[in-house]
Amino acid sequence: MEWGQVHALLGENGAGKSTLMNVVYGLIRADSGEMQFDGAQVQVHSPQDAIGLGIGMVHQHFMLIPPLTVADNVILGQETARAAGVIDGRASRRTVNELSRRYGLQVDPDARVRDLSVGVQQRVEILKALYRGARLLILDEPTSVLTPQETEGLFQIVRGLTAEGSAVIFITHKLGEVMAIADRITVMRRGKVVASTTPAESSQADLARLMVGRPVLLRVEKGPAQPGRPLLQVDGLSVLDDRRQVAVDGLSLEVRAGEILGLAGVEGNGQVELVEAIAGLRPARSGRVMLCDHEVTAASPRRRLRAGLGHIPADRHRMGVILELPISDNLVLGDFDRPPFARGIVRLLAQVRDHAARLIKSFDVRAAGPQQLAGALSGGNQQKVVVARELSNGPRVLMAAQPTRGVDVGSIEFIHRQIVEQRDAGLAVLLVSSELDEVLSLADRVAVIYRGRIAAVLQAGEIDRDRIGLLMAGGQADQVPAASEGAL
Amino acid sequence: MDAFLHVLQRGDLVNLAAATLVASTPLVLAALGGLMCERSGVVNIALEGIMLTSAFVGYAVAFNTHNLTLGVLAAVLAGMAIAGLHAVLSIAFVVDQIVSGTVINILAVGITGVFYRAYIQQAEVRGPGVLPVWKLPGLGDIPIVGPIFFQQAFVTYAALALIVVVHLVLFRTVWGLRTRASGEHPRAAETAGINVYLVRYVNVIASGALAGLGGCYFSLQQVGNFLPGMTGGQGFIALAAMIFGRWTPLGSFLASLLFAGAGALAGRLQIYGVHIPYQVLGMLPYVLTIVVVAGAVGRAVAPAAVGKPYRRS
Predict the structure, then answer these.
(1) Selection from A431, A424, A434 nearest residue A446 by Cα
(2) Which of 1.10.8.60, 1.10.3470.10, 3.40.190.10, 3.30.1330.20 would CATH assign to domain B2-296?
(3) In angstroms, what CA-CA distances link A367 with A324, A379, A408, A414, B140?
(4) How far apart are CA B207 and CA B79, in angstroms?
(5) Are strands A453-458 and B133-135 parallel, antiparallel or unpaired?
(6) pLDDT category, A486, cuts 50, 70, 90?
(7) How far does A93 lie from chain B, in Å, by closest CA?
(8) Computed from CA positions of residues A31, A36, A40, A43, in that sequence, does the dihedral angle turn out positive or negative?
(9) In sequence order, what are the residues at sequence separation of 6 or more whose Cβ sits closer than 8 angstroms to the Cβ of residue B247?
C-alpha cells in the first residue's frame, strides 16, 4: 500500500477480505504472520492499537449508536473533557464541524444518528475515523447501501482523502466500482491473494474470473417476459413501522404471472414493511393485498403460504433459516405438520430426510448431509436452502427480498438462474433489492420506491440506471430525463 | 371522596407531601442504581436483594458499633459487594442476568433471615436508634417547601442530591457517554476503544452502592430495627419506577413519587377511617405498579443492548 492511493480489495463474500481487515484493525487476532505499517513491523492487538497507528475502519454494518448525536458518536472513546470528566460539548461540536467542512462531508453534529439516512451515517463513520487521526482508512463494502449518486459522492470524498495524502483500502465485490476508484487492486479468493493488478492492466471479466476462480456470466441470460394475468395485487396499502410511523403510504403495485417486477429503492424507504405486510408478518393499516384473486389482507402468513406465496426474506438469520436446526428441518418449515411430512401428530422423519436429500441435490447445496445444522453452512448455501424451501412449496407468487445479500458469486448466479426459470414457468416474481445491479439485470419492469410510495414504474424499454438512481433519491418522474413517462 | 376532603380540610397536604418524599427515598435510590446498571447494558432485578442485604448489614454494624454513620457506610459497601457478585456472574460468567438477579434475591432473603435469627432476634441490648432529622437552617423554615424538602434525615437528602449527580454523570460526562454507548451498542463502543467490560463492572457496582444506601433507609432511617423481608418488594417497584421514568433520573424520581404517594395516601386514608379494608388500600402501590408498567410497556425505550451479555469476538 502507498500513501495517497486507493487500494481495492476485491473478493467474493467469504473470501476473507473482512477477516483480513479485522485483523489489521485489531478486532481479530492473527494466528500467524506479521504486519508492517509505515516501514516498521507492528503488533495490533486491539482497535486502540490500530487507532494509535492511524488506522481507521468503516465497518459494513455501521458501528454507530442510533440514539446518540453525531458529535457524541464521533468523540466516543476520545472525548475532550474539562474537569471531573465533563464533556466539552462546544469543543467537540466545533471539531466535528471543522472536519466535516474540510472533507466536504456536510454533517450536522447535533442530529441524532437514528434520524439520518444511511448515506449520511456512513459519512459520520468516516468522520469518526478522521477524528481519531486516521491516515489509513479501511472502507468495508461501503457502497452496498448507497444509491448510485451517493456512491459518486463517496468516491469524491475518497478522492479528497487521498489528495490530502491518506490511503484508503476499499473492500468490495463490485467490479465496476473497483475500476472507477482504485489505484491498485488486490484480488482474494478463499483466504489467499490470487492477483495484484491495476485497473489499467485488467478488465472486469478478468477480475471476475480471478475472484471466482472460473469464468462467470456477468449478465443473467433471459428471454423476453411473457406476462399473463396479475397474481399479486397491492392496492392502496399503508403500513406502520416499528416506531408507529407510516412506512408504506398508500402504495399500489401488481405483479403478473411470468414477469419479474423489480422494486428498487434505497434501504429504509418502506421495502421491509411492504414485504412484511405482503407476507402477513405486519398488519396493514389500510389497503388491500390480493394473492391469486383471493383477498389476503388480514390472512395469517400460513394461509398466504397455502394460497401460493413463496417468500425469500431479506434477513436470512432472523427469518430465513433456523441456524440451530438441521437442513432437513429447515426445508420443511412451512409443511412439517402435514402430509407427506407428518401423519396426525407424528412427524415422518424418513420423508423429511428424503425430501432434504432431493432438494440438496437439485439446488446444489454444499453440505455434509441433511442432518448438518443450517448454522454450519456458508451464507450462500443457507440462502440456497431458503430458496429450495420456498420453491418446493409450489408457489405461484415468489417474493424475493435481497435474495443474494451476503452470498458468493457462484450462489448468486445460481439463485438468479432459479428466479428466471421460475418466471419462465409462469410464476409472478416480486424482487426487492437494494443492489441496483441485481434489479437491472433481472427485472422485466422496475418500480422505484421512495418514502413508502411508488415513485415510478419503468417498462422494459425505459429502464435506465441514472434515471432510477434519481428516482431512488426522491427526484420527480417528470424532472428526470426519460424516453417516455413511466409512472403508474 | 370523603376521605380526600378530610385530607384537604385538615390542611394535611404538606404532611402528605413530606411523607411521600420520605417514602420515595428507597425507590429513588434503587431506581437510580437500576438505571446506571441498565444504561450500561446489564439488567438488575437484584435491587430487592441488594436493599435487603444492605438493610441488614447496615443495622448489624450500627448495632454493634453504636455508630449510625458506620452503619450507613457498611450498608453501601454491602450493596457494592452483592452487586459485584451480580457483575461477576453476569459479565464474566455470562450467566443470564435475570437468573443471576433472581439467585441474589433468594440468597438475600435466606442469609439475612438466618443471621437475623442467630444474632439479632435474641439480642437484649438497645438498638442503635434512627438517623436524626436535620432541619436545614433557614431553608427548613420556608413555609410549605421547608417541611417537605428541608426537614429530612440523611438518606433522603442523599437521594435528592444523587438524582442531580446521576443525571449529570449520565448526560454530561465522558463516563456517562461511555455507559450509554455500552448499553446501546457494545460492539460499537468496543471499536471506539472503550472497555465495555470495565464500564459494565463499574456501573453494576455503582448500582449496588446506590441500592445499598436505599436499603439502609429501611433499617436505619425508617424503623431503627431490622425485620426479615422488610424491603417488601420495593426493589421491584423501583424497577417499575425506572421503566416508567424511561431510564432517566428525573423521570425515575417522578415515578417514585407516584408510587410512594400511593402508599402514603393509602396509609392516611386508613387513619381517617375510610370504609375500605386496609388490606385493599395496602395493595394500592402494587396495583398501581402493575397498571403503570403494563401501560408503559411497548412505549418505553430500553437501552438497546440491555440484558444481552457481551462477548468479545
Answers:
(1) A431
(2) 1.10.3470.10
(3) 15, 12, 15, 16, 77
(4) 8
(5) unpaired
(6) very low
(7) 14
(8) negative
(9) B35, B38, B39, B300, B301, B302, B303
Residue pair B42/B303 in contact (Cβ under 8 Å)? The answer is no
Q: Which of B174, B180, B188 sits opposite A64 (nearest CB)?
A: B188
Q: Out of B172, B188, B304, whose CB is closest to A63?
A: B188
- Is the bond preceding residue A340 a cis peptide, omega within 30 degrees? yes
Q: Please report, as a single letter, which amino acid is at residue B67.
A: N
Do you know the residue count of chain B? 313
- Nearest alpha-carbon partner for A273 in A238, A305, A318: A238
Q: Which grid coordinates are listed for A412?
A: 448468486
Ramachandran area for residue B204 (φ above 0: left; ψ -120 to 50: alpha; else beta): alpha
The kind and range of the H/E element at A125 are helix A118-131
What is the model's pLDDT at position B287? 86
pLDDT at B10 over 70: no
In this prediction, residue A481 carries a pLDDT of 47
Write the pLDDT tens digit of every residue in B98-135.
999 999 999 999 999 999 998 888 777 777 888 988 88
Please say if the pLDDT value at position A468 is more than 70: yes
Residue type, B14: V
Q: What is the mean pLDDT of residues A12-16?
A: 70
Chain A within 8 Å of B185 (Cβ-Cβ)? yes
CB–CB of A420/A448 below 8 Å?
no
By C-alpha distance, the chain B residue nearest A76 is B192
Query: Is residue A348 a contact partner of residue A342, using CB atoms and an 8 Å limit?
Result: yes
Enter the pTM of the model.
0.77
CA-to-CA dists, residue A140 to A199, A233, A424, angstroms: 19, 38, 37
The residue that leads in pLDDT, B104 or B313, is B104
Give per-residue pLDDT as tens, B219-247. Answer: 999 988 999 999 999 999 999 999 999 99
Of B168, B193, B304, the CB nearest to A48: B193
| Cβ contact A76–B185 (<8 Å) | no
CA distance A83 to A91: 14
Place of cell 438441521: A326
Residues pairing with A448 in the sheet: A264, A456
Copy the grid coordinates of residue A99: 472536519
pLDDT digit string, tens, across residues A89-131: 899 999 999 988 888 888 899 999 988 877 889 999 999 999 9
* Confidence tier at B6 by pLDDT (50, 70, 90): low
Interface of A with B (CB under 8 A): 25, 27-28, 46-48, 51, 57, 59, 62-68, 72, 75-79, 81, 84-87, 128
Written as nine digits, the cell of B132 is 436524626
